[in-house]
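#struct-queue
[09:14] JT: dropping the first one here, sequence first, then the structure tokens:
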Amino acid sequence: MANKKPLVSIVMPTYNCAAYLPESIESILAQTYDTYEVVVIDDGSADNTKLVLEPYMEKIRYIDLGRNEGLPTARNLGIQSAKGEYVAFLDADDIWMPEKLEMSIDQFMKNPDAGMVYSKHINIDSKSQFMEGKIMRRLPSGNIFTQLFFEQNFIICSSVVVRKEVFNKTALFDSELVNCQDWDMWLRIAFYYKAIGIDVPLVKYRHSSKSLSKNRDNVLKYQKVIIDKIYTMFKDSENGISEKMYKKRLAAHYAKIGRHYMRMGDKIAARENFRLSLKMDPVNIRTLRYYLFHS
């Protein structure tokens, strides 16, 4: 008798994404892996989301929050409602390649100690047309915690599949975070578990003017919140973040903010952030040059 395929719970939060929902849901229905459930959490949409979902109601589980609670709350409700052994995330405006779930579950079968599997992606615009964008040449696998902490988040949420039992260890998404909640979650998972990166683009990641990630100032603010949070959480743990590592990471972050303000033409803010960076890492030649000559 063949082994029964594990159930995957697909968590799809949506907020005013009626225009993109059919394409996203159709990408689920086209999966080569067929043992899944779809949990759609309507985060207080004010558009015609319910009407658009009507043809799919027999194929999905629809939860209406009634008001806008935010992505972390919507995703957490999806996780709590999930019946599957695995939880996959798909944002309502993104699209999966047909092999997305099959290749992800295959990696879990090959790596029983992995807590998370993720993949590469391609970028698309509001009309689903391909966009140029920087993508890592090779995704890291194994113990990726330190690399994920030192680099900006390189894991696209819609590419991630997690063993549901992992959340018993890590807890759920932080509902206090307005932005960067996904980076915070992946860091917590990566601290406790191995992660497997699939070097194949299995997601079409949509860029739109409404995207939270477009608000650069907000992203930079919450990246600092995450850096502080993860350091505080794991500084006293084995293989955690040392004070030296923390200061080096902060220095890199302040330098990035400085370069951002320099591009925006705000020399005063740029210089102040380069100063803060050098306070944490005085011997960084690149930042010193920016501080002395470019701001």
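[09:21] JT: and here's the second one, same format:
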Amino acid sequence: MTKLKEERFTDRLHRNVEPIWKHTHLHPFVQGIKDGSLPKERFAYYMKQDYVFLKDYAKLFALGTIKSKDTETMSWFSSLLHETLNTEMDLHREYCHEIGIEPEELEAEQASPINLAYTRYMMNASQQGTLAEVITCLLPCMWSYHEIGTLLKREAGSLAEHPYTRWIEMYASEEFGALAQWLIVELNKLAKDMTEQELAVLEEHFLTTSRFEFMFWDMVYYGHGWPV
């Protein structure tokens, strides 16, 4: 008799978040990146807002380092912090230079309402919570971006003359996927001995930040800012 494979906690998360991520994958911003039709001004607004987002997102890796209980985990979180600050944000700076956004303008960009709400939710949950709560706030962004990058690379066809080649290649890369995979493994280890009540808290963070991810794409596509 074949023994059924035990479901990992992240398998449960992925199954339950699938309807949200499906909407994200089909969002006109993401589809516009895929076929290259996304207007440059929309992508420019995204790059500026995502740069603001990443400055707060990187701080969560610092919190992960603080809440870690062994040097190996501390080292991984410090590596993730380094990767975000010195690879992902470098891509933003290079892209922005190419499309005429100067460093002063990038640094002066203010967070939109959705951006502010998203990052403040993650910071509040992470500062007050456990290491597992930090990870469930971090993971939807990294995991969904790798899924999006992988899907777009497979579906976009030739990237030789594509206007968003570097963006797609970065998030589809094995290197970026490995960073998300480490968080997945670490979360499963932490969740192994948790009660259902504790797991429900983690799942709520994961689903909430996944919804914020969709709202972020929506915000940059339609240009939602402060109404007054």
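[09:30] RK: nice, looked through the second one.
[09:31] RK: Residues 58 and 85 are 7 Å apart (CA to CA).
[09:31] JT: good to know. The mean pLDDT is 93.
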